[in-house]
Amino acid sequence: MPVSMQHLVYLTAQVRERELEAAESLSVSAAQLMQRAAKSCLAALERQHPAPARVMILCGPGNNGGDGWVLARLAHAQGYRVQVVAAEPKTELAKEAAAAWEDEHGTAEPLEQLDRTHVAEYDVIVDAMLGTGLSRDLDKMYCRAVETLNDAKNFHKLWVLSIDCPTGLQSDRGVAIPVAVEADYTVTMVALKPGLLTAQAAHYVGHLELAELGIAPAFRQLEQPFATLVEQDEIARQLPPRARSSHKGSHGHVVIVGGAPGMSGAVVMAGRAALRSGAGKVSVLTHPDSQNIIASAQPELMVSSTAAESADDVKEFLARASAVVLGPGLGQTEWGRKLCEWVLAADVPVLLDADGLNWLAKNPAWAKRAAPLWLTPHPGEAARLLNSSANEVEQDRWQAVKKLAQRFDAQVLLKGAGSLVAQPDSSSIRICSRGTPALAVGGAGDVLSGIAGSLIGQGLDVEAILPCAAWLHGVAGEHAAIAGERGTLPSDLMEPLRKLVNP
Q: Which CATH number, 3.30.450.20, 1.10.8.60, 3.40.1190.20, 1.10.10.10, labels domain 232-500?
């Protein structure tokens, strides 16, 4: 049975340097590989827009353009009305593919003359301009072509298919340099690339399909993956059915620390998520002014308060915990600072989020601890931890998450579209591609913290906790948003979450 690489992610250079070697080991020529790529794109086109749809194919000078030229011939043969708009082909394969099209069908229009009015005459636009071959900012002609295409697409509701990678999207980092094609569908070849799965990718890639081109087993023998996707079967492995003789003490005691005055809701969200994720017991250590509010909001939470006057009292309270979630609603007052310092000094597993991360950024030495540490920053919090900016973090999320894991000797989840998880030893990064814009609302991060804290308390493998938490959070959000993304609340995730932790 062929080896699938649907969950493996490779750097663009790995694919570029090894795909031909893998193909040759199977007696597949470069021209045959291009033919297979074009056939994969034709299959996607036929599923979405059957012939005789009007198709404009934009071909660049390299082998990505070559894929487009071959697709033009195949689509024409299937009854599509095809127009090629192209730059002058530069590679041998692209020249051969262009010549084959011109021998059979004659003409191609120059790419530099592309205009919105002409683009709007078609049902489908195929982007075969640059693919993964982009190493620097787009030049003026390609910027204009991309902007023309996007403008026409958004105004006339055209359907756009990108071959391998939307032109202008950096295929390893997932950022537009400086603009990128807004595709509805992307067929990427041989292996998934990092930039198709995180950062701005969700905006530009659309639906992502992997075409392995029949060389996956050979390619996998040549290269180790750069990252791996979190998949549903991992959740089932980590959360098997419970023993019939189990009791509440069998499933962990999670302590949520936070809830400064006016921010009690963050603790409630985290606590509810911990309960719905299967924690046996959930306690809260909060500010005296918040105790009654939290206790009345969720009766299953065992709520205590502290004025943060004695580190010994806090240490004694934490002694019974199997996991601590520190940060939801913690605040930036002296009360929050003391609790953060004292909790991190305790010999107990800690997941740090929200203001807990902000206090750590000011006091990085607090991360030097014997017990395990998990961090779940969004890009702004990650920037403070790295003494950089959120924009710098988003420009290379992969490097940012690796730096955080190494600097703080922690398991780190960098939140965002395409959440990333890294370990301190810089082994393969995990990526969760699940989620929805419905999660872009205050309180969603507190739910994630509660899920992760619950999984720590239940004793999941250390390196599986954040990948599983990210997947559960993202998929629960998808389910909650079925009725509509706008207006979905973090509390709406609780019932879907309950179902997901019982695979």
A: 3.40.1190.20
